[in-house]
Amino acid sequence: MLEESESKEPAMNPFQKNESKETLFSPVSTEEVPPRPLSLPKKPSPKICGSNYPLGIAFIVVNEFCERFSYYGMKAVLTLYFLYFLHWSEDTSTSIYHAFSSLCYFTPILGAAIADSWLGKFKVLSLVGLSLIALGTGGIKPCVAAFGGDQFEEKHAEERTRYFSVFYLSINAGSLISTFITPMLRGDVQCFGEDCYALAFGVPGLLMVIALVVFTMGSKLYRKPPPEGNIVTQVAKCIWFAISNRFNNRSGDIPKRQHWLDWAAEKYPKQLIMDVKALTRVLFLYIPLPMFWALLDQQGSRWTLQATRMNGNLGFFVLQPDQMQVLNPLLVLIFIPLFDLVIYRLVSKCGINFSSLRKMAVGMILASLAFAVAAAVEIKINRMIPPQPGPQEIFLQTLNLADDDVKVTVLGDENNTLLEESIRSFQKMPHYAQLHLKTKRQDFHFYLKYHNLSVYTKHSMEEKNWYSLIILEDGKNISSMMSKDLVCLMCNNVSTLRFVNTLHKEVNISLGKDTFLIVGEDYGVSAYTTVQSGEYPVVHCRTEDKDFSLNMGLLDPGTVYLFVIINSTNQNPQAWKMEDIPANKLSIAWQLPQYALVTAGEVMFSVTGLEFSYSQAPSSMKSVLQAAWLLTVAVGNIIVLVVAQFSGLVQWAEFILFSCLLLVVCLIFSIMGYYYFPIRPEDLQEPADKKIPHTQGNVINLETKKTKL
């Protein structure tokens, strides 16, 4: 039978800052270290303009802005870098993107352990966190917010609360500016004739250097609490000892204990056990959370890829696909005050208890709806993009460059008519015709009727391709040539074009500073090239004996153009312009509803979840719990990686899958939250008059290892 008693000998314990008269068991271990005093300045730190805000906060906030600018700016262009520069597939690009994101969110566990046990928050930030991106993020994320909070004295709790709002504002300001500017550096600046990814990655790298300099400048102003021991190791060993001790003492003669962690009382102090109890209760609630992050983080991958298949021309501005991500931080800055000052207050006035866990559940529902909307947009896109030829299929169009009408008949192997069309001079078929092949490659016979002239010709075509039959005039005769067309479904942010030169001289065309084309004489056909969309009123051209210019007009993003250079009576050569493949006319603005829904869900889920985690975390484990929160983000990115690689679903079906999975997870989380009772701050401290049971009777015979009475 356990009895309450009080030991007169102080406990020698590495896990308590002060000696306690209530601890009966003292562990015999090589892990014991003498307590170190808090290394705080003897005099109050300087304040900002006479306020209660420490001056060091300014350096921390500016550092966070620069670091977030660097991180989000780099991530904004990462998917398109994989897709266009490295020429990876959409699934591979998505997988690598989320693998990198997962690594960035796994490392905070390591960063929290190092900060709490070895270097302290300040040194992790300056030496590790700002040196590498992936590993550095692990040093920064669990430390920087808490390090800023450490700068305030306890009597300035109100100012500390406002600091966290300013801190979160700096994060979203850095993200907002970087996700808008970095895609412009990539798309609007040319490096070696291509998008300038070097500049898009270089500017965020420069901001990281600035972050390091700014943070170091405030070194002498910071309050630097020393590390308090490896709390991660302490927690793990405490849990392991409780489990093993319970297993070794599973006899029915031994009294049961109120909580399974109470079986660690023979070796570990009660305050640590209370802290671990609070920690495990919150970590249990974290189990369903990764699915939310699996949806939220697809803004930089799947949603960006969706934007590449949409029309970014808004009339007054051409929006790059990766610039759509700017909506998230912009809406966050709008929604946070909107929810705090309006929506939550209205809900409260209606008498509804809108607890933190309920807000998080509603956030999950909003994110699920966002992916349902994304699926609807994806279905709409699929209906508007050109169909793709399948196995043993080709798409064919005919372009007539003769001076009169030409009747074209396509014959099969058995001289059966597959296609018959009459085409006017300098016109083309209104749309591509679909032809079926008997094998992967097949010869087709063409019968051309021009005036009283009949011409038979044969061309070979291969499955899964687009072709143009170009009819040429040579005096009174006609001929034809077959050209394989390019359908660039992933070039919606640029214009694709090629030239046919009907002149008898070679033409050199300058499309920009680093883009040149040479088109051969007598119906020479150039290779395809991509240019930035926009107006091209004067395009400089040159033959061996004269210079002239072509007016190509407005080039829409995502459109594939064909320009035919022809002679004009008493004038310079001109360009006849036509669209081979029209752009997808679905505006990129259709993504706005899904961004609004997912951002509203993020405000209700993420901001509330961080606040909830901080309030429920014991003071000694706040960095650990913050890192565990970030660990759920890492697991969420792994979920996306697995689905992208192994699901094999079309994109709209994948969106529906994620939407349904989050709804199921939301239901599970709601049930778990219903049985969760929040902990008050005073419950996390051991009461002064609380006595721990003395060991008598059966407890004397407990099987414990490395433990003495």
Automatic annotation (TrEMBL):
A cellular-component GO term for this protein: apical plasma membrane
Catalytic reaction list: L-alanyl-L-alanine(out) + 2 H(+)(out) = L-alanyl-L-alanine(in) + 2 H(+)(in); glycyl-L-lysine(out) + 2 H(+)(out) = glycyl-L-lysine(in) + 2 H(+)(in); glycyl-L-glutamate(out) + 3 H(+)(out) = glycyl-L-glutamate(in) + 3 H(+)(in); a dipeptide(out) + 2 H(+)(out) = a dipeptide(in) + 2 H(+)(in)
Annotated segments matching region Disordered: 1-41
Record Pfam families: PTR2
Coiled-coil zones: none
GO MF annotation: an example: symporter activity
Top-level taxon in the UniProt lineage: Eukaryota
Biological processes per GO annotation: dipeptide import across plasma membrane; innate immune response; protein transport
Keywords: Cell membrane, Cytoplasmic vesicle, Glycoprotein, Immunity, Innate immunity, Membrane, Peptide transport, Phosphoprotein, Protein transport, Symport, Transmembrane, Transmembrane helix, Transport
Membrane topology of this protein: Multi-pass membrane protein
TM regions (residue ranges): 69-87, 99-118, 124-144, 165-185, 197-215, 278-296, 326-347, 359-377, 627-649, 655-677
Keyword Isomerase part of the UniProt annotation: no
InterPro entries: Alpha/beta_knot_MTases (IPR029028), MFS_trans_sf (IPR036259), POT_fam (IPR000109), PTR2_symporter_CS (IPR018456)
Record's subcellular location: Apical cell membrane; Cytoplasmic vesicle, Phagosome membrane; Membrane
Quaternary state and interactors: Interacts (via extracellular domain region) with trypsin.
Protein role: Proton-coupled amino-acid transporter that transports oligopeptides of 2 to 4 amino acids with a preference for dipeptides. Transports neutral and anionic dipeptides with a proton to peptide stoichiometry of 2:1 or 3:1. In kidney, involved in the absorption of circulating di- and tripeptides from the glomerular filtrate. Can also transport beta-lactam antibiotics, such as the aminocephalosporin cefadroxil, and other antiviral and anticancer drugs. Transports the dipeptide-like aminopeptidase inhibitor bestatin. Also able to transport carnosine.
Stated family: Belongs to the major facilitator superfamily. Proton-dependent oligopeptide transporter (POT/PTR) (TC 2.A.17) family.
Protein name: Solute carrier family 15 member 2
Gene this protein is translated from: SLC15A2
